[in-house]
Amino acid sequence: MAVLAPLIALVYSVPRLSRWLARPYYLLSALLSVAFLLVRKLPPLCNSLPTQREDGNPCDFDWTPCGCLKPWIPDIREVEILMFLSAIVMMKNRRSMFLMTCKPPLYMGPEYIKYFSDKTIDEELERDKRVTWIVEFFANWSNDCQSFAPIYADLSLKYNCTGLNFGKVDVGRYTDVSTRYKVSTSPLTKQLPTLILFQGGKEVMRRPQIDKKGRAVSWTFSEENVIREFNLNELYQRAKKLSKAGDNTPEEQPAASTPTEVPDGESKKDK
């Protein structure tokens, strides 16, 4: 049973993993991973490459320095350089499946998200206390933020309404916002991206959570996790009821209202 459960989980995740790997930048990553080996080992291509090997074979790696008496002892040449670069890539991105990775492109698809600056975020959160905000704190240089961008955009298209809004703020650009809302931009803390739920202009919850050392608790930014943790279905239904109640309020007023009461009704509807 201990072996069967992981196999079932792997088979269940194959369709999602295949769609994830079929993206252009991951296909390009796989191509770059094998391009160097093909150029160095394929005779039609490697014959024209310069080499410092004693035997003059350009289609083999330089394992030893010239004049070395022990050819089985590796030198700091191509193989060790590749090992060093691979270690750096793996340390930078532990979830990487390839030796070389391409940075995911910026998401340019449809979305229903309001982008804040350091001067507008507080004003928008305090404008109407009845509106619930879900704000993503992100940075353009973060691979995790770019991977989460299409997921967050889909959520905004599905759940955005009058009483439930989605926003984003670039804490890599507005560093004072990160300090104000206690979102660290250090890659070591793994706090990017951070989702914060605001109700009545106040923070209610955030994901990922932060431990005592200031590091983010491991949390997967998937659509299912966001919907479940933030109760988006319940928030959406509640926001729809509030918006309907707000729309019905001006219609229930008496028809013989005085002219001074009309601007008040219109201002509430505009809000």
Structural account:
This protein is α/β, with parallel strands linked by helices and 271 residues long. It contains ten helices and five strands; from the N terminus they run H-H-H-H-E-H-E-H-E-H-E-E-H-H-H. It has a five-stranded mixed sheet with strand order 1-3-2-4-5, with helices on both faces. Strand 2, helix 6 and strand 3 form a beta-alpha-beta unit. Helix 9 (232-251) runs antiparallel to helix 10 (262-270). The protein starts with a helix and ends with a helix. Mean pLDDT is 77; it is low at 65-76, 94-101 and 251-271.
Average residue-wise pLDDT: 77
DSSP E strands, number: 5
Strand sequence of the main sheet, in spatial order? 1-3-2-4-5
Helix content: 40-55%
Work out the radius of gyration. Answer: 27 Å
The quaternary state of the protein chains shown equals single chain
Ends distance:
58 Å
Low-pLDDT runs = 65-76, 94-101, 251-271
Summarize the structure.
It contains ten helices and five strands. By secondary structure, the chain is α/β, with parallel strands linked by helices. α9 (232-251) packs antiparallel against α10.
